[in-house]
Amino acid sequence: MFGRPPGVIASPRVSSSPNRTSHHFVTPHKRWCRQGTVPTAARCVPNSPSPRARCCCCRRGCIIDRRRRRATVRAMTVFSRLAGAALQVSLTALLAAVVPPYYVYKLTTYLLGAVFPEDVAGKVVLITGASAGIGEHLAYEYAKRGAYLALVARREVSLREVGDRALALGSPGVLVSPADVSKAEDCEKFVDDTIRYFGRLDHLVNNASIWQVCKFEEVEDVNHFRTLMDINFWGHVYPTRLAIPHLKKTNGRIVGVTSNSSYIFIGRNTFYNASKAAALNFYDTLRMELGGDIRITEVVPGVVESEITKGKILTKEGEMKVDQDERDAILGPTPVERVGDFARTVVRDVCRGARYVFEPRWYMGVYLLRVCLPEVLAWNSRLLTVHRAGASSTDTLGKWLVELPGVRRAAQPPSLRSPEIKDE
């Protein structure tokens, strides 16, 4: 089976087992062992699992090698433990040195922002998705503070109605620009129109968004959801890219309205969650790149009264429609904040210079779950929003809970049950 080198003589040796005989190669050239050049066939007994079936010199070398390996492993283990302990001590010392000054800085900036908020009177604010919901009410809040408004949305009639109300609330001037934020050429047009009409730009509010409800495996064609990604992500990127040169001139601000889905995962919202997480990370990275030239505020809404929470969804077939049963199957008994209160809080915090606006505030507890107990959050989301295989898509625990007596009235504003919801 093995080739035998010259000078190696095979001699039989009876093993300790009565019915077993092993053969040991005896080598007269022990210098091979000392130099580590003994062929495997000369060192080992054929078909023997025992490392002892070797010549004495080889066994001695193997024992020494094993001892060296064990010593090396012990030394590496001790070193890694010492290195880990040193790293922990260093991080603890760093946190002890950095955290107190950081919180002093945060408290100071918060107090300064509260005492000396930004005055937006006479400034120009461009808002996308302004024909309804959050964008509409943000326009009203800016109008009350005396800002000029450039309003953008696809529905021109609704947009003009919002513009008229904004003028009545105190805005000195309103520009209405019907456009689709998912198209780069439309974005270029309304940014240029704003600069041409007002001569400057101070705040860019990226708000346009649509919602999707279906399980990923139920999607008939993923290309149907390019529209969602184009609006929810590229609808933030295009206006931002075009507005940056103008915002730098005024040391302006970008306000990006994302979603709590940027942080937490909600069942049957696969593409929506992904688009909002992409937008959030886009703004985080952009803030780091721009430094202090342009300030950025990221608005992270929870469940807020809007066309989305009224049931306007993108279906698995890629069609926009109003389906309040599907809405209830996802939102369940989650309290819905009134959009007027939400917009008031957002504009107030934006003028105070906030980097992030989390509203409602109690959602901060959910974000902590995402960091500390992600499995619990995933289990809860699946339990409330995902239907069983073969069951109706609206057959969820969340929908059953919201239909309990008194729950819907307590959790949802009356507008969420209005039949006058546009599905265009």
UniProtKB/TrEMBL annotation:
Q: Which Pfam families match?
A: adh_short (PF00106)
Entry membrane topology: Single-pass type II membrane protein
Q: Where does the chain cross the membrane?
A: 78-103
Subcellular location(s) of the protein: Membrane
The molecular function terms in GO held by this entry are: oxidoreductase activity
Organism of derivation? Panicum virgatum (Blackwell switchgrass)
Primary subcellular site in the record, as a coarse category = membrane
Q: Which UniProt keywords apply?
A: Membrane, Oxidoreductase, Transmembrane, Transmembrane helix
Q: Does the keyword Transmembrane helix apply?
A: yes
Can you quote a single GO CC term? cytosol
Family affiliation: Belongs to the short-chain dehydrogenases/reductases (SDR) family.
Indicate what this protein is called per its UniProt record: Uncharacterized protein
The UniProt entry, under InterPro entries, shows: NAD(P)-bd_dom_sf, Sc_DH/Rdtase_CS, SDR_fam
Q: Where is this region: Disordered?
A: 1-23
PROSITE patterns per the UniProt record, alphabetical: ADH_SHORT
Q: Which PANTHER family match?
A: OS04G0390800 PROTEIN, RETINOL DEHYDROGENASE-RELATED
Instruction: Say if the entry is tagged with keyword Oxidoreductase.
Output: yes
| Organism lineage | Eukaryota, Viridiplantae, Streptophyta, Embryophyta, Tracheophyta
